[in-house]
């Protein structure tokens, strides 16, 4: 399947999930994340969910990260596929942009190269750690700005595809966490 075919397939699979199923599967993913060997770092980047796209509810994972007394970083989209990153605090103002993405409006700026772990939204992934996102390229640009040893963790409701055709600019995952399994990739 092409990336566009996979996008269609996995958007349809998400639409089949009820709100209750999304919440339970999201909690299962957050609990699985606690088994990852990533918790000795300081700065954890997380995406805030787009509810209308039936994305994983990252609120559970956010609470787990904060419960481990780690610093959480969230992003705001900019022009030219750029994202600005801000430390999430109790006073960070968050507003939905025109695409329905909850974003910080301002706050304490964090550089991409300072991040230790990045949790990544995706629609599909394969057994080699390649991923299919929404196709805009924001995360590929963002991950290219991070340190080479940043830990990239995908989050998915569904299991791995056998193989996805990767492009030169695609960033491979180190892990992908599903409700029932953690996939680890060598790259």
UniProtKB/TrEMBL annotation:
- Reactions this protein catalyses: (6S)-5-formyl-5,6,7,8-tetrahydrofolate + ATP = (6R)-5,10-methenyltetrahydrofolate + ADP + phosphate
Protein name (Swiss-Prot/TrEMBL): 5-formyltetrahydrofolate cyclo-ligase
Q: Which UniProt keywords apply?
A: ATP-binding, Ligase, Magnesium, Metal-binding, Nucleotide-binding
One term of GO molecular function? 5-formyltetrahydrofolate cyclo-ligase activity
Q: Which residues does substrate bind?
A: 50, 55
Q: Mind listing the GO biological process terms from this record? A: folic acid-containing compound biosynthetic process; tetrahydrofolate interconversion
Sites where the protein binds ATP: 3-7, 131-139
């Amino acid at each position: 399947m092409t990336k566009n075919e996979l996008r269609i397939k996995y958007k349809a699979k998400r639409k089949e999930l009820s709100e209750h199923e999304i919440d339970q599967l999201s909690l299962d993913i957050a609990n699985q994340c606690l088994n990852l060997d990533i918790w000795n770092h300081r700065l954890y980047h997380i995406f805030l969910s787009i509810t209308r796209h039936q994305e994983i509810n990252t609120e559970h994972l956010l609470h787990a990260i904060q419960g481990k007394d780690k610093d959480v970083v969230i992003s705001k989209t900019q022009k030219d596929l750029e994202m600005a990153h801000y430390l999430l605090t109790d006073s960070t103002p968050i507003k939905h942009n025109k695409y329905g993405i909850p974003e910080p409006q301002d706050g304490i700026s964090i550089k991409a190269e300072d991040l230790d772990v990045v949790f990544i939204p995706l629609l599909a992934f394969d057994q080699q750690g390649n991923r299919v996102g929404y196709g805009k390229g924001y995360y590929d640009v963002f991950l290219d700005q991070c340190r080479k040893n940043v830990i990239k963790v995908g989050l998915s409701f569904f299991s791995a595809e056998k193989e996805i055709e990767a492009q030169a600019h695609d960033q491979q995952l180190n892990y992908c966490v599903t409700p029932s399994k953690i996939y680890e990739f060598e790259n």
